[in-house]
Amino acid sequence: KREIMEEPSEIQSFYKGKTIFITGGSGFMGKVLIEKLLYTCSDLDKIYMLIRSKKGRNPDLRIDEMFKLPLFIRVRKQKPEVIKKVIPIVGDISLNNLGITDEQREHLINETHIVFNLAAAVRLEAKLKDAIESNTVGTKRVLELSKTMKKLEAFLHLSTAFCHVDQIELGERVYDSPDDPQDVIRFVQWMEDDAINLVTSKLIAPHPNTYTYSKRLTEKLVADEFPHIPVVITRPSIVLPALSEPLPGWVDNLNGPTGIVIGAGKGVIRSMHCNPNCHAEVIPVDWAINALIAIAYKIGTDRNKPKNCPVYNITQSSIERMTWGQVLERGRSIAYDYPFEGQIWYPDGNIRNSKFIHNVFVLFFHLIPAYLIDFLMLIFCQKRFMVRIQKKISDGLDLLQYFTTREWIFHNTNLLILWGDMSRKDKELFQLDTANVDVLDYIKFIILGARQYCMKEDLSSLPRARVHQRMQVSSIQKKIFFHFLSPILSFNVHHSHHNGIPILLRHIIFYIQAI
């Protein structure tokens, strides 16, 4: 390791003295990219980070807060001097000319060598106009700026492996778009919102949501700039918490699988519509970021310029494949060993291939208990919350089930060739090989990461959480609890002169006890 740090690798040498422009740097993947570049490619010149004010916090304050995150702990401790290399560019992809000043624009035009275009609206349920404005028009604005950059060596666009849902086998090439991106942009800019919402489902078909549809259109925009701009399209699969860098399990959002892990761990999610035989197309965020850095190096140094726009599927399907059923089977015992605080029920949910059976379980184990709990909250003049939470969970599960009940084959030949061509030092610094990953350890990292970094539950609380979980599973303790709770509730309600409610409450309690 000392030798690796003393003698720069080929990728490190490429980034030495480079100026990098990053959009989406404050997002999940963007922050991990910045951390990795600062720590491993410390000899870069500077990183221009497009960032806007948010919730009353100006860009400088947001960057200061970002560097205080646990994510940057090794940078703060070992290389604090590189933090000043991150320079905020106050702007927004939703604004004309990105909303940047003429002076900032000149800096970008004259200095930028590499562009990482990561900015995107990742909400699957976003309205079509919002998705097109953020993902497609935003990228168009970044492309227009990049055309004027005098030193540009690589423009890396972050897409998704699921932007061509009609392709059962997704190759590493550009696919035709069903609609012209420019036509769709004009449509959403000129039409009224109600009219857009009315035709959205037909327009985006066969896509299940506006996110994948807008990403597909954006790929066409990017590919059309080749070879005038050294563009490359990258398509990661579902991005999971970090495997090893900079912290095992690092995650800062509840999107996708992380939200499911937390919901199931809290005992709130008891059923999920999922085909256990379908393969889980996932990739750790640090592996995905390593791929982005290596791909930009490849584009910037490749003397044999490609004839067509290069595409890299950042997936692990050709390397290590696991089904959703295998993931659940291997992860269940780990989840029991590392419980979340404040479990509402014992976390023994399951996945179900049948949509009908899943809906039955949702009714009896999601919705009815939620209404019963809120009813009890109402009686005791407490704030109701369970129905609202369950509706959000149901909406999220409905959006995800499209991807957990279908099978795709993602070819990643270009990624494997890139890995094979990397030097020994670069392979140690920018790990891409998932073949030797200990799946059980990684699942543990995911659970603990969600627990620590999303729910802010310190590891010191694990013993207390384990005790609480044992109480959840003990039927004797449940019966004792409800035995004492029932007369208390009945007494309180009886003295409030609602004579018919005590019997109803006892039925409710017995129902919850059965659950």
TrEMBL record:
Sequence ranges assigned to domain Thioester reductase (TE) in this UniProt record: 22-291
Location of the Fatty acyl-CoA reductase C-terminal domain: 365-457
Protein's cellular compartments: Membrane
Membrane topology term: Multi-pass membrane protein
Any GO molecular function: alcohol-forming long-chain fatty acyl-CoA reductase activity
Keywords assigned: Lipid biosynthesis, Lipid metabolism, Membrane, NADP, Oxidoreductase, Transmembrane, Transmembrane helix
Name the record gives this protein: Fatty acyl-CoA reductase
Phylogenetic lineage: Eukaryota, Metazoa, Ecdysozoa, Arthropoda, Hexapoda
